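Subject: sequence -> structure tokens, single chain

Hey, anyone have a minute? Need the predicted structure for the following. Not urgent.
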Amino acid sequence: MAGLARLHGSGRRGPEWLQAPTARIHPRAVAHAVVGLWAAGGDRDWLRPLLLLFLCKQLLLVALFGAFTGHDEVDHYWYIARIGAGDGLGVVGEVTLPPETRPYRGYVADYPNNAEVIQPPLYHAVLAPLWRVLHGGAIDRLFVLRLFSVALGLGVVWIAYLTAKMLFPESPFLRAGVPLFVAFQPQLSFEAAIVNHDILVIALFSLLMYVLLKGLGSGFSTRREIAVGLVTAAGLWTKLSFGLAIPVIVLAVVWTWWDNRRRWGDAVWALHWLVGSLFLTVAVPLLLISPWFLRSFWLYGDPTGSQRLRQIQEFGNSASTYQEMFTTPAFWRERLEDFWGNYGWRNIPYDAGFSQVIWVVWGLAVALGVFLVAREILARPFGWPPLLSRNQVRGMTVVATSVGMLAFGVLYVGTIQFTQSRFIFPAMIGVALISLLGIDRFLPPRARPVATPVLLAVLMVFNVVALVRFVIPFYYGPGGGGVLLP
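Reply:
Had a minute. Here:
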């Protein structure tokens, strides 16, 4: 807590390159990015304890959540086991789960089939060697594999700090508040404590956004463009929904090109740069994922395999149209519930009163962000001083676009099967920025020294109440009904 208090006294302005996108990157900024969390400067007094607290919390959750009660955890584990045993990738409808999974059939959408083999295999191939060297039964191996998710979750919290520091170096509240929001968002913590490829998607998307924002601020070098392409390819080989990042990539690259085209002078050279950048950042990852598209088209009749999922009764029967989703109040209520709660494949919902408190508090925070956008739009006509720099406006526009694309992904999945809010989780850092930016800009000066400790206290109380009132009784109350279904 003392570290958090000292944070608000630092208040240093950011490096020059954040104010002028055409300038060179300061060597110290590069050094900090390379060294990582141990070179976090004056923020390390609170960043290290936060990462340690997150690690301890996640280890507790790994042990707390019943085996195979995470969403699709049964399918993902046996997809890893299948590759680890050398049995190949498999085809949806032909790969069945072993008899030992029967007690967990309530957590499988298409039991006894493994529907997750329709997914690209990067996450599963990475964990397959670890599965091979582990001893013991499926449950023992499962809990060890969950530690990989914990490590990825730590990486996401660290990237959240680096992203907030890059965009808002002058704001102690955002530098601390964004990683706090991410670290204590209960459903992201759930993702980072179970075996599921979503946590790798979240980590890769967070890394991609950080690199894009760096490029937007200081330019896209060839090395940075290659990094964007490789991260995007890895994301696509983890989950095809990562393709929703491609419009965001195009926006960042084209915007950077537009701002620099006059400086280059030669229109032909400027166009050459744009084409080359888009090739490395967009075309290369699409080429790298093309073998999987071809395989899916050959097996299922379309490049993504979505048509095959629609044929599965449990999936197809729950699909809706965009109009049905938009006009159904229950749909939006369920999305809010999914975002903050509904652990264990929706078997552990919050009660109505607890959910309403969450919605009111979060709704007010988001409303301040919307008000900030309206105020910035009106600032120039009315002669008001802007509350955001030009680079911050550009950065937040790209961030908001990424959140919007993944929100569309939530709706799109709903046209194939039952949808869930977790499909927006790869943009969790963006959600945190949008949720906290309005508070930061309209916070009275007198309240600033206590803002971050208050946010930490609110989030910790929220997590403790969620665990004590809902999660622990479900798993360890009378009957322990969450561990094995009857």
